[in-house]
Amino acid sequence: MRGVVSRTAISRSGVSRSGVSPRGISPRGISRGGTFPGSGRGGPPRRARRWWRALVAALVGLALIAPPAAAEGAAGYPFRDPALPLAARVSDLIGRLTTAEKVSLLHQYQPAIPRLGIGAFRTGTEALHGVAWLGPATVFPQAVGLGSTWDPDLLKQVGAVVGREARGYHVQNPGYNGLNLWAPVVNLLRDPRWGRNEEGYAEDPLLTGALATAYGHGIQGDDPRYLQAAPTLKHYLAYNNEVRRDTTSSSVPPRILHDYDEVPFRAAISADAATGVMPSYNLVNGRPNHVNPDLNQALRSWTEQDLLVVSDAGAPENLVKSEHYYDTQAEANAAAIKAGLDSFTVNDQNSAPTVEAVTSALDQGLLTVADIDRAVRHILSIRFRLGEFDPAGHNPYAAITPDVINAPEHQKLARRAAAEQVVLLRNDRDTLPLSAATDRRVAVVGPLADTLYEDWYSGTMPYRVTPVQGIRERLGAGGTVTASEGVDRIALKEAGTGRYVTASSAAGGAALTVSGTESGPQQAMDVFDWGQDTVTLRTVANGKFLSLGDGKTVVNNAAQPTGWFVQQQFSLVRQADGSYLLGYAGNDAFNHGFAVVGADGRLTIGATTPEAATRFTLETVSSGVASAVAAARGADAAVVVVGSMPFINGREDDDRQTTALPAGQRAIIDAVRAANPNTVVVLESSYPYSGDWDTGDVPALLWTSHAGQETGHALADVLFGDHNPSGRLTQTWYRSDADLPDILDYDIAKSGHTYQYFTGDPLYPFGHGLSYTSFRYGELRLSRSSVGADGQVEASVTVTNTGRRAGTEVVQLYTHATDSRTTQPLKKLAGFQRVQLEPGRSTTVRFRLAAADLAFWDVTRSRSVVEKGDYEVMVGSSAEAIASTRTLHVNGEVIPPRDLGRPTRAENFDDYQGTTLVDESKVSGTAVAAEAGSWIAFHDVNLGRGARTLTASLARAAAGSAGLTVRLDDPVRGRVVGRATVASTGDRYRYTTVTAALSGASGRHDVYLVFDAPATIATFRLTG
């Protein structure tokens, strides 16, 4: 058995005692370490000093110097002595730094300090599923694919390879190829429309925490003293939308924050599987995450190790610019440092604005040197653990050379990971596996049949094995593979002149012209349909895609769609007269428009309206569907490979609008299935699809992420049965986009998001995945039927392989509170194990379930509680396929009726309507912002013999007043027992105390606070 994980093991782990993007620039001044052109820099400090400026310039000039030889005498400093305790060494070095040197270390690009023999250091090497952006390296499946393995052992091995290859690159350029790795992403995949869905592991916090812990441990290595590399968790907290991501606030009630969003971060940090954390761009409950007090108060309470908290790229400037949270960069940087931020990723390699802002904050008294020392200690602690300041021969990882990059054993692991993450969704009549003995003629068709795509955080693949290549290799010389991408080949002819759009045959491409008088290879283009009227156009002349060049010229120079602004996106817009417009659909909105033909015959995106655009006649040279059908007809089996393009169908800064498969791709599936009954569909995507796959006429269906360089080998391994599929879904696949609430709704309990709360009928449930063999579950057994709040129980079940093939089952344990004071998840993953069994063999799977694993956040007392009651303990192969259930009685706490006579924070409501959680102040606290007609509810309140006074802390920024009505048992028809009025306080952060008399408020009731106008409430109480 492998991958044994229980909720106890994750949530209660003991504490160990032991960028700049080369790919482009993002909107709003946000790049992977970049600044949007023209956005400017932070202003100079109010009391800037000339000598500070001179020193800043000198330090910036040293930023990229290679690590210098130790300065004379530096080798004898205590901080160089590996025999001393780490804390003492860090303190010694901090004591030798000047204030200016300390401040210089707060930027992503930390300059060398030659007088102490200290080299340059850079935070932020991307390493999500392989080392990225530094050059060719082993590319593993996307994180969402690694998640579908449900295999922590495998993820630790993958993480170890990533850390090893990071060391290999570090040797080549120590000052730039850093060992502070920005991975893994542990944001929960709450909504499949999130543009960055491929970066996370699962919608479940236990599974995500287990996999992140394994990946982080792998990156770090197993040495008790030294780090192989330093993993950084992304992105804290409650971040699942790209739309207005730097200004939207995730309104998350306390119980969801504690029991859902925080869990995977807490799991990895408490297991010492992370050395750092990156806050997210968004706000949570009204406060930007880069000044979230959790950075110090929560994250650092989960471990005794130092954590290096790094900003996301450009986020420090957002505090002033897009978010307008602070007036000056000095105020913003000071607030961030006080909240717990240590390293500023902003302005690319130019640290001067950061240094100037922090220096100004020191001059103004917004920061103390002690604040700087605290941040520098967190930074240096990681650098020491990486072995940077130790003599040669001490750090075992220092011996790693670039030879490890894409080593043969790494390629082998990439192939295994790519195979293990494949999920068999459907397999009617045992269509799969194919037989190399009988299925000798295989058609492989579809737009993803003979290509592999990288995503924004991919490394550069050293080689690519496509599905066509992998299947052809598997069949060998005796087999035949017919292939077709299934895309239409077209030519565009200017309607007015009859001349054809013509492409250059040069390898580097050139501007497209309207010059051809006949249709031939230079006029032909292949149309790839990515849905929602977005296509990419590949010219036959040189095999390159159309792109937007300088001066909005249309050129054929792109090997694949890529870049921050994906300028290979176009649309073919049919007009009423049957003609077409060529539209530009890239995500740089300022360039949108339509193609026009200039006097020189060149195509440019020069028309802002359809009326001003050039019209074209579209000629279909060959039909993609017909080509796919021709390839499939007569084959022993047809494999249709469809799916997403990671740079187009949702990605960072671009949420997807639908989870439906593009109509053009579905047409290929339907046509091939009609031509060949033995059709297998491979969905290759970064996210779940909605649709009618469970009722469609496709006998076999597989899902894979974009699985890296070994995708083709892995698919062939699965299709032909060399690998029995064992992947399991880590997200709910909804039947329709209509099943999803607003992407900005973060309260999964109220909205019915994820398998934990979804009451509908999913297309495929969380945990689903089939095998080429079958498994039988025995009855679930509990070692005891009752347990105390501090006790534990063993849950066990016998699993038998009843099929004819060896296979791996992922046994899943779930729990559910049958009766609770609050709304509980319908099911909650409590543990999982991967079980490998030969045919006919059985094994007993055992889980340790602690009563503490059943705890939830009690808003009535702001702490976790194990509630007394009965709990269903369930075991099965998915959240829906439950094989056996037992009841466990837990002798926990009985949550008493609410006592609103004590000061009560308004955020700790039990229910609400129309309200939003906001920041009580810019430093700390959460309040409730109400609108006219909105309300918050507090259930099961003991008002005793009578509450006579309401006292509330309220704010109202707008002019006029707002009324607060207290009702019992119903927000509309309930009895009114009191009413308070708050006049304008002039500022939403300025609170006033309001009182009102209550009448008839006695006994046990649900209490509703109902607002008739906008106001903000922080605390209240009902007293006798």
UniProtKB/TrEMBL annotation:
<dbReference type="GO" id="GO:0009044">
    <property type="term" value="F:xylan 1,4-beta-xylosidase activity"/>
</dbReference>
<comment type="similarity">
    <text>Belongs to the glycosyl hydrolase 3 family.</text>
</comment>
<keyword id="KW-0812">Transmembrane</keyword>
<feature type="region of interest" description="Disordered">
    <location>
        <begin position="1"/>
        <end position="45"/>
    </location>
</feature>
<dbReference type="InterPro" id="IPR036962">
    <property type="entry name" value="Glyco_hydro_3_N_sf"/>
</dbReference>
<dbReference type="Pfam" id="PF01915">
    <property type="entry name" value="Glyco_hydro_3_C"/>
</dbReference>
<dbReference type="InterPro" id="IPR008979">
    <property type="entry name" value="Galactose-bd-like_sf"/>
</dbReference>
<comment type="function">
    <text>Catalyzes the hydrolysis of a non-reducing terminal alpha-L-arabinopyranosidic linkage in ginsenoside Rb2 (alpha-L-arabinopyranosyl-(1-&gt;6)-alpha-D-glucopyranosyl) to release alpha-D-glucopyranosyl (Rd). It is not able to hydrolyze alpha-L-arabinofuranosyl-(1-&gt;6)-alpha-D-glucopyranosyl (Rc).</text>
</comment>
<dbReference type="GO" id="GO:0045493">
    <property type="term" value="P:xylan catabolic process"/>
</dbReference>
<dbReference type="InterPro" id="IPR044993">
    <property type="entry name" value="BXL"/>
</dbReference>
<feature type="compositionally biased region" description="Low complexity">
    <location>
        <begin position="10"/>
        <end position="30"/>
    </location>
</feature>
<dbReference type="InterPro" id="IPR008999">
    <property type="entry name" value="Actin-crosslinking"/>
</dbReference>
<feature type="compositionally biased region" description="Gly residues">
    <location>
        <begin position="31"/>
        <end position="43"/>
    </location>
</feature>
<keyword id="KW-0732">Signal</keyword>
<dbReference type="InterPro" id="IPR006584">
    <property type="entry name" value="Cellulose-bd_IV"/>
</dbReference>
<dbReference type="Pfam" id="PF14310">
    <property type="entry name" value="Fn3-like"/>
</dbReference>
<dbReference type="Pfam" id="PF00933">
    <property type="entry name" value="Glyco_hydro_3"/>
</dbReference>
<protein>
    <recommendedName>
        <fullName>Exo-alpha-(1-&gt;6)-L-arabinopyranosidase</fullName>
    </recommendedName>
</protein>
<dbReference type="GO" id="GO:0031222">
    <property type="term" value="P:arabinan catabolic process"/>
</dbReference>
<dbReference type="GO" id="GO:0030246">
    <property type="term" value="F:carbohydrate binding"/>
</dbReference>
<keyword id="KW-0472">Membrane</keyword>
<feature type="transmembrane region" description="Helical">
    <location>
        <begin position="51"/>
        <end position="70"/>
    </location>
</feature>
<feature type="domain" description="CBM6">
    <location>
        <begin position="902"/>
        <end position="1023"/>
    </location>
</feature>
<dbReference type="InterPro" id="IPR017853">
    <property type="entry name" value="GH"/>
</dbReference>
<keyword id="KW-0378">Hydrolase</keyword>
<dbReference type="InterPro" id="IPR013783">
    <property type="entry name" value="Ig-like_fold"/>
</dbReference>
<dbReference type="InterPro" id="IPR002772">
    <property type="entry name" value="Glyco_hydro_3_C"/>
</dbReference>
<dbReference type="InterPro" id="IPR026891">
    <property type="entry name" value="Fn3-like"/>
</dbReference>
<keyword id="KW-1133">Transmembrane helix</keyword>
<dbReference type="InterPro" id="IPR001764">
    <property type="entry name" value="Glyco_hydro_3_N"/>
</dbReference>
<dbReference type="GO" id="GO:0008422">
    <property type="term" value="F:beta-glucosidase activity"/>
</dbReference>
<dbReference type="InterPro" id="IPR036881">
    <property type="entry name" value="Glyco_hydro_3_C_sf"/>
</dbReference>
<dbReference type="Pfam" id="PF03422">
    <property type="entry name" value="CBM_6"/>
</dbReference>
<dbReference type="InterPro" id="IPR005084">
    <property type="entry name" value="CBM6"/>
</dbReference>
<dbReference type="GO" id="GO:0046556">
    <property type="term" value="F:alpha-L-arabinofuranosidase activity"/>
</dbReference>
